[in-house]
Amino acid sequence: MKRILSGMQPTYQLHLGNYLGALQNWVNLQGTGNQCLYCVVDMHAITMPYERDGLSKASREIAAAYIAAGVDPAQSSIFVQSAVGDLHAELMWYLATMTQLGKLDRMTQFKDKAGKNAEKAGLGLYAYPVLMAADILIYQATHVPVGEDQKQHLELTRDVASTFNHRYGRDFFTLPDPMIMGEATRVMSLRDGTQKMSKSAESDLSRINLTDTPDMIADKIKRAKTDPLALPDTVDGLEGRPEAANLITIYAALSGLTKAQVVAEFAGKPFSDFKPKLAELTVAKIAPITEKMRHLLAEPQEIDAILVKGAETARSIAAPVVAEVKDIMGFWKV
Ligand code: TYM
After folding, report:
1. Please, which residues bridge with residue 188 across strands?
2. Which of 77, 85, 196, 223 is most buried when burial is the number of CB atoms within 10 A of its CB?
């Protein structure tokens, strides 16, 4: 049996990159004997300045987005990280003692987020990958479906798990495999095809949010940056054309076609023919999710009940793992 674990931060709104790079894959991984655990990683969200009064609501909204996108609470456990925070933070501390600073120094997400002022960044932001390792290892997850930007964190997780196993001479932690799946493992900004689509980019025109209305989606796609050429007739023809490559990738991931099939369909066509089709497809996929999210959020107590149940399941898996880690590490017990 595969044990699948993944998470998203409750910061801002989820966007098309989160959906295509991760969430859509989470939904597809359900069933077929997999045990799926999907977490709202709120303890990660506080590593950057955040709004205290909006945090709890944001966690519910992300849970609603998971469900609206097709994560089925009857098949998958959905939970908020801080509801099992004592155990995640405890394991993080143990793992921190076997994480080399040199490795943390190389983490690109820290460099991106801390910017030029790294001296002033918090310890939490720096230690973030250790908490992420704990999030995964505490459930002995075998597979972690994420977008490409999380690959480095997954490598560190495997590294820390091996260090533990080696240091204590026990084959205890499962080394999780990243699952970087589908056509859109790295969705780029609609304003600049060389930059990742991100929650924090200044221009809202750079991303499609799961909460955007159909008109907003159509408008953003219409205004998306392109180049003056027609669409190529081979995938190789997208080389050096980041914006065209991104829009074709999005189309492929939304439609379930390969990039080659999409290119074949639109070969030689101008963007003015392609963009309305892309807008139509995006709206067809996103609008029902937005609508379902709105319904779910009208009944927050139902989401809370799902999250309470999810946390119970999460705790029932995590508590024995932490107890065994303590035992392996030689802590006092009666
Ligand atoms: P976060 O919240 O930034 O993003 C959530 C998921 O969305 C993917 N993603 C993208 N995929 C394709 N194109 C994009 N432009 C794009 N932007 C985001 C991310 O790869 C991710 O899968 N560190 C994690 C959260 C985390 C986690 C974990 C994930 C904490 N603990 C344990 C898995 C397992 C993060 O910041 O994701």
Report:
1. 196
2. 77
Task: Dump pLDDT digits (tens) for 259-276.
Answer: 999 999 999 999 999 999
pTM metric for this prediction: 0.96
Q: What is the pLDDT of residues 47-81, one digit of tens each?
A: 999 999 999 999 999 999 999 999 999 999 999 99
Q: Which residues does ligand 1 sit against, CB inside 6 Å?
A: 5-9, 17-18, 21-22, 41, 44, 132, 135-136, 144, 146-147, 149-150, 153, 185-187, 196-197
Query: How far apart, in Å, do the first and last CA atoms of the chain sit?
Result: 34
Helix (H, G, I), strand (E, B) or coil at 177: strand
**Index of the ligand 1 atom closest to the CA of residue 185:** 12
Q: How far apart are CA 98 and CA 328, in angstroms?
A: 14
Q: Are 69 and 24 in contact (CB under 8 A)?
A: yes
Burial (0-12, 13-18, 19+ Cβ within 10 Å), 70 = middle
Residue 201 has pLDDT above 90, yes or no: no
Query: Per-residue DSSP letters for 195-256?
Result: SB--TT-S-GGG--BTT--HHHHHHHHHTS---SSPPPSSGGGGTT-HHHHHHHHHHHHHHT
Q: Residue 12 above 80 pLDDT? A: no
Superfamily of domain 204-295 in CATH is Tyrosyl-Transfer RNA Synthetase (1.10.240.10)
Q: Where are the domains of the chain?
A: 3-179+300-329, 204-295
Whole-number Å distance between alpha carbons of 239 and 232: 10
Contact 36, 29 (CB under 8 A): yes
Q: Which helix (H) or strand (E) holds 304?
A: helix 300-329
Are 68 and 292 contacting, i.e. CB atoms less than 8 angstroms apart?
yes
pLDDT at position 246 over 90: yes
200 has a pLDDT exceeding 90: no
**Among protein residues, the one whose CA lies closest to atom 29 of ligand 1:** 7
